[in-house]
Design brief:
The protein is 74% helix and 0% strand. The chain is an all-alpha fold. It has one domain. The longest helix has 29 residues. The protein is globular and about 60 Å long.
């Protein structure tokens, strides 16, 4: 049963990607939601008993491998070359996420003992992505049920905001923000192989090399933390993996590999299936209303504050929306939102900023959590 469970976690993401390429409903839900729901359904099938230890081990192995794979495509040296308005808006989005999570977390400090951990995880996901939320959660040793409820609430809140971005967000912001003015160096850039059907032998070779390098980074960091601390502590280990992933991305050969980014996204889907399989449906259906409010308030306040600061600094509407998309969703939704804005020139910078968010999410998430705990005297 354990072997079958592992195979289900590893292979189902391919089904989710395939379905999202062919069916409108699956495309609307997205592979992340499909994988998460599939895990929940598998865990609650009558007569089926999944091993929680197996699911936990799969999820704990997925995050350290996914982070460097996602970061290999990052070109840190390109960040300062982006348009000034985009850089400023991205910084404002990060500040807004940290401030909102800190403020809301402090407000909820009497309602849950993990309030500071939750705030750090939400900074991770609203600066970077799901990988960052999972990594920060592992570093802070958050309870698995807390992560499940947070992830479920984030899926609902994030889905609602995405609909807004894809429909009338631009028209609303243009009422009080200036329109976008194209810059000549903004050229579209897309990650190859985003669709499962587009993967070729070239992608598979790059994926293999990327996976080997990611595994080497994980092994080196685990060995160093074991030697220094006497155990593989999640916090130092994941920070070390993030840092080495960024260092590796400085190599042009590594950045040129085709496939590691897509493999990193696939491994994140494996993580989603594994985490979903830990969930009791009754826990999610009757989940904490407090945590749902926590997530909604942090996301809503972060978005409003980001827009308000962008208005004050006269950032254009399209740059603001693309930076909001890059931080809250990561690179995955930049393309669809840019298409909805009818502004393909922002796809490349948006993807770069999405990767920058993944790179910064762990650091800012942990800094927020530890800062709040220090302020509370913990």
């Amino acid at each position: 049963m354990t072997v079958i469970q592992v195979l289900f976690c590893v292979l189902f993401p391919a089904v989710a990607i395939w379905a999202s390429e062919r069916f409108r409903v699956a495309r609307f839900l997205g592979p992340v939601t499909i994988c998460y729901v599939a895990g929940v359904l598998a865990a609650n099938l009558p007569g089926v008993r999944l091993s929680s230890d197996t699911s936990m081990r799969v999820s704990e192995a997925a995050v350290p491998l996914a982070i460097p794979l996602l970061l290999f495509s990052t070109d840190v040296r390109e960040w300062p070359r982006l348009a000034r308005s985009l850089l400023i808006s991205f910084v404002l989005a990060c500040i807004a996420s940290v401030f909102s999570a800190g403020l809301v977390g402090w407000f909820f400090r009497e309602r849950t003992d993990e309030w500071w951990k939750i705030a750090g995880m939400l900074v991770g996901v609203y600066v970077g992505g799901t990988a960052n939320m999972a990594a920060v959660g592992q570093m802070l040793e958050v309870r698995s049920e807390t992560f499940l409820l947070l992830n479920a609430a984030d899926l609902v809140a994030g889905g609602t905001y995405l609909i807004f971005l894809l429909t009338f967000a631009q028209r609303l912001l243009l009422r009080f923000m200036r329109p976008f003015t194209a810059a000549p160096h903004h050229e579209p850039f897309e990650h190859p192989g985003e669709r499962l059907g587009a993967w070729t032998r070239h992608h598979l070779k790059g994926m293999g090399l990327g996976f080997a390098l990611a595994a080497l980074i994980v092994a080196v960091v685990a060995g160093v933390t074991m030697a220094v601390l006497g155990k593989v502590a999640a916090g130092p280990a994941l920070l070390g993996i993030t840092t080495l992933g960024l260092v590796a991305s400085l190599s042009r050969r590594i950045r040129a590999l085709v496939g590691p980014f897509e493999l990193g996204e696939y491994i994140l889907l494996v993580f989603c299936v594994a985490m979903g399989s830990l969930a009791d449906a009754r826990l999610l259906i009757g989940g904490s209303v407090m945590l749902a409010f926590f997530v909604a308030l942090v996301m809503g306040l972060a978005i409003l504050l980001h827009v308000a600061l962008s208005v004050l600094l006269r950032i254009d509407a399209d740059s603001t929306l693309i930076c909001s998309t890059a931080t809250i969703y990561g690179p995955a939704q930049v393309g669809p939102v840019a298409a909805a804005l009818k502004n393909r020139s922002l796809v490349g910078p948006g993807l770069t900023l999405g990767l920058a968010g993944i790179a910064l999410g762990n650091y800012l998430g942990l800094a927020t959590a530890w800062g709040l705990r220090w302020l509370a005297g913990g």
